[in-house]
Write a structure and sequence with these properties.
- The protein is mostly helical.
- The protein has two domains: 51 residues, no CATH class; 74 residues, Rossmann fold (3-Layer(aba) Sandwich), CATH 3.40.50.1820.
- It is 57% helix and 9% strand.
- α1 runs antiparallel to α2 and α1 crosses α3.
- It is globular.
- The N and C termini lie far apart (49 Å).
Length: 136
Amino acid sequence: MSANENEAIEAARLFTRWDTSIVTKDPQPDLLDKLNKDPKSCLPISRLFFHFTVNEYMKHDHKPFLLKRMKTLSMPIDIIHGRQDWICPVENAIELHERCPNTRLEIVENTGHGMVEPGLQKAFIAITDRWKNRTS
């Protein structure tokens, strides 16, 4: 959030490098190389993360409200979660599954948080195919 553009870009690059390092189960050197080649591209997402962290990250007062509302949903809900998600603990997905009716939980082994993970991509495609077959 620095007014000094060079300082802001370097801070954004370092933050995004850290985030990219933990978003997947295993490091993705090609993603890290892209960040280093275009550090200015890191600025928008790092500012978004910073805003979320400052304004929402530690506020848990909305969790009971949301979980209570989730109980009222009648449509089927698929929950996919990577077992090695270091950003959002797998316990969150389990709690959501236990509290919400009509949910199907799939915990994908050897998978982290990011959509670049092959296991998550495969799970999302399988769900999409299942939805498509329901409506055919």
